[in-house]
Amino acid sequence: MDTMTLIGILLLVAGFILVGIEIVLPGFSVPGVSGIICLVVGVFLLADTVTEGVFITIAVLALLGILMAVLLWLLSKGKLRTPLILKEEQNREEGYLSSSDLNYLLNKKGYAVTDLRPAGVGNIDEIKFDVMSEGNYISKGAEIQIIKVEGSKLVVREIRK
What we know:
This protein is α+β, with helices and mostly antiparallel strands and 161 residues long. The chain is built from 3 helices and 5 strands; from the N terminus they run H-H-H-E-E-E-E-E.
């Protein structure tokens, strides 16, 4: 086995590893581009004729398909960690609320954290919410009261003293 064949095989192996990393950590970045370059150069170094190059390319593509199927199967079964799946829970104790939970805020009072033109941020019970005025401008710091809850939309009115 000559040196060029050995380098070609090493480049193919490195290419498969880099493409595997890219499948697990998606984004067209350094591992993916480097893996593609390694595979292409490896095919060129191993092939003596165009026909050999075509056969090697078909074999490389088949192996990439198998690699992708295996890695995706492992990811779907939870055998590999992926940054695409959120592992943390969003619970009430950490300040996360679902839109169905907002009816308890009806008639609560707070203040406008930002100017409401008509949408902005309001502070109700020391929790910041996206709120919307009835259509009127409400300045920052004004006292507000929630008058209507429509799904996740909180409609507020300024409390005038």
